[in-house]
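target protein:
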Amino acid sequence: MKMNNNPKLLLALMALLVVVVAIDQAEAQSNICNMSVSDLMKCKPSVTPPNPTQPTADCCSALSHADLHCLCGYKNSKLLPSFGIDPNLAIQLPRKCNLPHPPNC
């Protein structure tokens, strides 16, 4: 079967390519500073007022793989409060997980 003789097949392949690229971009955007959205949610109870919990082992494990310097870039962002996250509590997480606190953060 020649592709130039089957425009439906060509159209289907192009649509599949668009879907694959869209999925790849969505996955790339769902990672923040080497933490997936799922990893970030593991830590949310520890950074959400008024009664934050101690970070869980799962949270600390996820945080240990994160780019902490990158996460520091969000401390003055309005993005965190829009998700109910207190930046001051977030900054305390590395210490609570016995991880090195990034300098100048």
User: Anything to note?
Assistant: Residues 7-29 form the longest helix (23 residues). The first strand starts at residue 31 and ends at 32. The chain has two domains: 1-31, 33-105. The beta strands are 31-32, 35-36.
